[in-house]
């Protein structure tokens, strides 16, 4: 009986994997066959099985055993209160693939509560895609607040800002941070953040019940540079100082220690506590983010993590 149950579980795991690659990663059946080393006919049968077993609704509804084991190992190794590991497509370069769906499901769970909550949000492609996957809701009892500035140095809005978008989707009061991600000087930052509306939003963010944040990498072409928030010279300075990642603009090294001075002296984002004073869930995946995720974990900047299986395996020592 035990062997039969184990065989069925493994079969369902394969069905879930094939269905995920087909519906979420948008692979063709031929591509799935190559990745899983099975025939195209087997792929068709696995996808059909996933439908028959009600594993597929709008999201994958089957916890793959290997992903659950990886999540537990990461929780144990890094002392996290929450970790969710999803399937991965090793050939995809989409930074939000799979993890955006999981983050959206987690956000939706909070928004479905009747008692009021405050949700703080970072920015980045992963958070943006998660917000896009939320269903329309009516949540006037909740509040969402930004942890990070929404303006580039030229005054343009950040492409990955999510506060206005999520406010429209869930019909909840939303509080943007109408400040630059990085001010031109520490004096300018202090003046801007001392304004009463900004200070109110900072205080609201610091009293949040839950936060979801992206984890940005610091490398030759990080989002901070490509999105126009810092210059090449400033990036070079951060790299020379040992920066490997950033959270809402705050740059840190491989041990999670904030970089002294440089752009950190001018970041206008909400200061994060270390360790977090409320649940802070990082949403990130990919080889290019490994050092940044490790640094965020080492520095205890996050208390939860949503990632994929390939990244999770690399994080486990």
From TrEMBL:
Gene3D superfamilies: 3.40.50.1360, Winged helix-like DNA-binding domain superfamily/Winged helix DNA-binding domain
Keywords: DNA-binding, Transcription, Transcription regulation
Keyword Cell membrane carried by entry: no
Molecular-function GO terms, alphabetical: carbohydrate binding; DNA binding
Keyword Lyase assigned: no
Sugar-binding domain location: 63-316
Family per record: Belongs to the SorC transcriptional regulatory family.
Protein name: Transcriptional regulator of mannitol utilization, DeoR family protein
């Amino acid at each position: 009986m035990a062997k039969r149950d184990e065989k069925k579980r493994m079969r369902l795991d394969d069905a879930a994997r094939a269905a995920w690659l087909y519906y979420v990663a948008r692979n063709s059946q031929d591509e799935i066959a190559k990745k899983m080393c099975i025939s195209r006919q087997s792929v068709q049968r696995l996808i059909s099985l996933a439908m028959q077993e009600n594993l597929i609704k709008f999201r994958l509804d089957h916890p793959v055993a290997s992903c659950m084991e990886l999540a537990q190992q990461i929780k144990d190794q890094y002392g996290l209160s929450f970790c969710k590991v999803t399937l991965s497509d090793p050939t995809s370069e989409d930074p939000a693939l799979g993890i955006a769906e999981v983050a959206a499901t987690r956000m939706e769970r909070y928004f479905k509560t009747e008692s009021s909550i405050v949700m703080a949000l970072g920015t980045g492609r992963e958070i943006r895609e998660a917000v896009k996957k939320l269903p329309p809701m009516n949540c006037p009892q909740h509040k969402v607040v930004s942890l990070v500035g929404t303006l580039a140095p030229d005054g343009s809005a950040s492409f990955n800002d999510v506060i206005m978008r999520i406010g429209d989707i869930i019909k909840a009061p939303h509080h943007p941070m109408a400040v630059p991600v990085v001010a031109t000087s520490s004096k300018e930052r202090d003046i801007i953040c001392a304004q009463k509306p900004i200070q109110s939003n900072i205080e609201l963010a610091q009293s949040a019940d839950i936060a979801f944040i992206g984890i940005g990498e610091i490398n030759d072409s990080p989002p901070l540079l490509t999105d126009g928030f810092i210059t090449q010279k400033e990036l070079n300075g951060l790299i020379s100082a040992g920066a490997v990642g950033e959270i809402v603009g705050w740059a840190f090294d491989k041990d999670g220690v904030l970089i002294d001075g440089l752009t950190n002296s001018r970041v206008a984002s909400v200061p994060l506590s270390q360790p977090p004073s409320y649940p802070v869930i990082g949403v990130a995946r990919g080889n290019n983010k490994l050092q940044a995720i490790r640094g965020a974990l080492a520095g205890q900047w996050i208390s939860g993590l949503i990632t994929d299986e390939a990244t999770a395996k690399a994080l486990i020592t």
